[in-house]
Design goal:
HATPase_C_sf; EC 2.7.13.3; Heat Shock Protein 90
Length: 431
């Protein structure tokens, strides 16, 4: 973003100041010719004026010494001069303004007091012939003018500080915006990767299983044409569903209107039955059980999360666990939907002591937490990334997910399957 201007353009101000100085110098020269003086005295007056005005060149570097030097030049110039040139007092006002603008308020007030004391001493000093250069009203005006200059310098400093703070805040906000944009991009990439994994991985896994079954049946029993045709129909249906869901996912990514675009392909609890049927077509004896209060409205994000969890669990059961049967239980509770997928596969070999779930109760550790063995899915495959994705979906809705091996009735027997159970609250969404 472009930097915020902390001061007005200096070129016009400098041109105006130069014009004023030239006018004052001309006026000063004219008045000197009207009241003639000896050349040594005139040279001293011009030297004092030049020294006082020239010292202003260093006012930014050394504001207090420069102001003090200008004040001394004015103190020497005015008492013995028959006319009052405005140049020394204007130079002192500029120096005093700079001191205040640099934040040296104590020094500025001290210099103003010294200036007034010098004026008073000059009026009362011997040799003035009883006349006065400055009357009482002028003294009051001069005092107010000097302190007005100090106030203007202080106001300028406050304005500069405010503008610097605004600029710093704008830069910080811009940086924070960039960080949030990068973080949002990373989260979006992760979400897209999770969606593609869930959508494509499930359907292609079923296609792979069905294709293997076709080849096996054709090799062992080439005469069973009817079963071969049924298997090929299942392969075709699976590939068609995969393409349909892929198009839906890509359609979401291509949406130009972010507010009108859905956050994921339209899938929910009403589609879980189709998942179970596809798993059955792949050779898994799968069935769906609905409990609780079915028919209650379920938020779309909850339905999508439940659908993806069932999808990933059935995919793992078909691909990795060697399961023959699986039961999908969807329970509608007052404030949540609970989904449980349990199969009779061999579970996670070598990790039975971590993330186990005894019958009727959840495992002691949440899937995806450290030490739960979720870096591998059933059968030690790379499906653990899917389990972590399921746990992330549940956590995003304020719920939780457990996954682990299932033991015998007493909880001490051998592994007899694998269970994934998730609780998805209805009234809370992380996004």
């Amino acid at each position: 973003m472009p930097p915020i201007a902390t001061s007005a353009p200096r070129r016009p101000v400098r041109l105006l100041a130069a014009a004023v100085v030239l006018a004052l110098v001309g006026l000063n020269a004219y008045r000197m010719t009207v009241i003639p003086q000896p050349w040594p005295r005139m040279a001293l007056d011009w030297a004092l004026v030049a020294a006082g005005c020239g010292a202003l060149y260093w006012r930014r570097r050394r504001p207090v010494p420069v102001a003090l030097a200008v004040l001394l030049c004015a103190a020497v110039y005015y008492p013995a001069n028959p006319y009052d040139s405005p140049l020394p007092v204007i130079a002192f006002a500029v120096a005093l303004y700079t001191v205040a603008a640099e934040g040296r308020m104590t020094a500025a007030v001290t210099l103003a007091v010294l200036a007034m004391l010098a004026v008073g001493y000059g009026e009362l000093a011997p040799g003035q012939g009883g006349g006065r250069h400055v009357d009482d009203a002028a003294m009051v005006l001069l005092t107010g003018w000097l302190f007005g200059v100090i106030a203007a310098g202080h106001a300028q400093r406050s304005r500069q500080a405010y503008l610097r703070e605004v600029e710093q805040r704008a830069v910080a906000a811009e940086r924070e915006k960039e960080v949030r944009a990068r973080q949002s991009a990373v989260e979006e990439r992760l979400r897209i990767a999770r969606e593609l994994h869930d959508v494509i991985g499930h359907s292609l896994s079923l296609i792979n299983v069905q294709s293997g079954a076709v080849l096996h049946r054709h090799t062992k029993r080439p005469g069973e044409t009817r079963e071969l045709v049924a298997a090929l129909e299942a392969v075709r249906a699976g590939s068609r569903d995969a393409l349909r869901e892929l198009r839906a996912t890509l359609g979401v990514l291509r949406q130009a209107d972010e507010e009108a675009a859905p956050t994921a392909p339209a899938a929910g609890l009403e589609d879980v039955g189709a998942l179970v049927e596809r798993a059955s077509a792949a050779g898994l004896d799968a069935r769906l059980v609905t409990e609780g209060l079915p028919g209650r409205p379920v938020p779309p994000q909850v339905g999508l999360a439940a659908y993806r969890i069932v999808q990933e669990s059935l995919t793992n059961a078909v691909r990795h666990s060697g399961a023959r049967r699986a039961v999908v239980t969807v329970r509608h509770e007052e404030d949540a939907v609970r989904v449980r997928i349990e199969d009779d596969g061999h579970g996670v070999p070598g990790e039975a002591a971590q993330g186990d779930a005894a019958p009727g109760r959840e495992g002691p550790k949440e899937a995806g937490s450290a030490g739960d063995g979720s870096d591998r899915g059933p059968g030690g495959s790379a499906a653990g990334s899917g389990i972590e994705g399921m746990a992330e979906r549940a956590r995003a809705l304020g719920g939780g997910l457990t996954a682990g091996n299932v033991r015998g009735e007493d909880g001490k027997g051998g592994v007899r399957g694998y269970r994934v159970e998730a609780r998805l609250p209805l009234g809370k969404s992380a996004r």
